[in-house]
Amino acid sequence: MILLCAYGISLVVDKFGKLFPVIVAAYAVSSVLFFATYFTEYAEESRHYYNRDFLDAVSEADSMEEYDSLYITGNLGWQFNQLATEILTQYACRIDARYYQSEDYAQRYHYIYPERSGAELEEFVGDSLMVLYEDELQYLQFPYEVIDTVGEYFLLTVDKDSEDEVLN
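The structure assignment produced for this chain is given below.
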């Protein structure tokens, strides 16, 4: 696309040499308008499509070293895709190939589907940290404590000290 634009500009400049300053000014104004929109308003609007909240939530969860294991939802907000969340987790946490292939990775990172495993989650999560999308809290059938909220995601643990059946 850039080459076609350059070719078109070249043809116009060759034919109408005096329009060169006008063309440069038009491209300069267009570039400024594009960059001003793309890196400000559009960046905020598109964060949902680039999974910014998920990446931030997983990154923050990974930085909490007091938790040995992380249970991460497959819900990206706009689609459920466990493979995509695993890839995005590896990106956000800067996981290299050797660590990914090791037992340490399999012991630390677990990918879950809360809608299908709601009651069983309490048993296998234990003292670990969960990263869940906001709509998935309804599937938890045990008391939980929200540690932090990152965009549309919650970082939470099983609340073993609670006498209530379910905390909301």
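Interim note for the steering committee: The mean pLDDT is 86. Helices lie at 2-15, 20-46, 52-63, 82-92, 97-101, 103-108, 114-125.
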